[in-house]
Amino acid sequence: MEQGVIDRPTYSRTKFPRAQAIEEILKNPLTVQRELNNRSLYEFITCFWHVIVNDEFKTNWHIELLCEELEKVAYRVANNLPKLYDLIFNVPPGSTKTIICSIMFPAWCWTQWHWMRFITASYSDKLTLESAEHSRDLIRSEEFRQLYPELEIKVDKDAKGNFKVVKKEYVSPGRLPRLHQGGSRFSTSVGGTSTGFHAHIIIWDDLLNPKQAASEVELDNANAFLSQTLSTRKTDKKVSAVVGIMQRLAQNDPTGFLLDRKKGSIRLISLPGEIRNYRDQVSPKELIKYYKGDLLDPVRLGWDALKELEAELGQYGYAGQVGQKPTPPGGGMFKVDHFMMVQRLPDRVEYVHTVRYWDKAGSDGKGAFTVGVKMSKLIHGHYIIEDVKRGQWASEQREKIIRQTAEADGRGVEIGVEQEPGSGGKESAESTIRNLAGFSCFKDKPGKGDGNKAFRADPYSVQVNNGNVMMLTADWNHKYVDELRNFPFSTFKDQTDASSGAFHKLTGKRIARRVI
User: Fold this and answer.
1) Which pLDDT tens digit goes with each residue over 137-150?
2) Fewer CB within 10 Å of terminal CB in the chain, N or C?
């Protein structure tokens, strides 16, 4: 069979003669809706959307596309035909991907093939169980039971992480229905077990937390779970299909991992949120014609919404999760010419919060620098770099300078101290805080390694690049700007690290977030 052709099973069509079918429809209008649902996952979703989601359903072409691609997979499995490919969707956060693929799709399949078994997985138990619970609640709902009275959850197999469906067959009036054992849904997560369970269709939805994308260990864990655990849980290796859904997070994330290993057996549907900058990421290319004003979904993900996402996710996160292009930040991450240079500080009424953040080093005249960046958040969404203290000081001199700087800044400035990994780092941070008795202080334990440094700096770089950061003119400007210009490939990263720490404290922003 050619790829893309939907082979619908003959038992999905009416068995009544035409006249009798019309008579049945007139007697029961629900029959019309049921038939529409049977023919289209999209119709099923529009029918039951309000059962799962309080917000009004807003359609877009990508929703119909995802539904059609899922139908192709389901019909081949239902007909016991050898699979043509495994399916991967790369779509931005907030595009209803989880509702379509993880919640609605299994329920729709059971309305036609009650025997079908599913395994679903995510990066955490909480997320995969949440999707399973929504799917189970849909089947229990009054609206679903009106259209599909023959389907119900098996009474003694009703855990949200592992439930089964049964199909009732009414043999004769007045008698209890005959129960046919149906399919199931087993939910697991990365690192979890699925021993003893096999599925006709396996669905993995975000096997990697965005905040874990900088960790090689977490990447390896997700990919090992995909290749060594889920791959062994198929009812029939020739027929059973795997469906993956995610936004891109790293070059070697589950999508990249699978494309490298078995590109010829993967059908990739890649839909960046906008194609002004990410046209090359669209797959298949013929889908470009459906974009409107270079946007995938102008209603859910217009330019204003995308700008907010870039501010929250940072350049790296935006490129991966929205653009589906997880390219590591290179030199020029900071557009340093976008700093607004000022000759004097703003009026105090414009200040919201001020932080002096210290990135400490213990060298005396060599090696890394100790840096203390003083940054303030202003009203109207602006920030200002007021001062940078930087030097290669021995520990005793360093602590003296940190204390003197605090006294000069005043007690209205909050002081942050980076805690290096290990017991030595903890003791050093605690020693500095004791030295700052009488001042408002906090310890901060950022991730280790240059990859994490780049992720941590990303949200700050977005504000710099958008012209929202001012800098007081001073003699430290040149070395500060020079380091940021070449980050993350600069020789030293201390000023960038201290700036990132101050910015995160002022904004309370996480490095990345997940939106379904």
Assistant:
1) 999 999 999 999 99
2) N
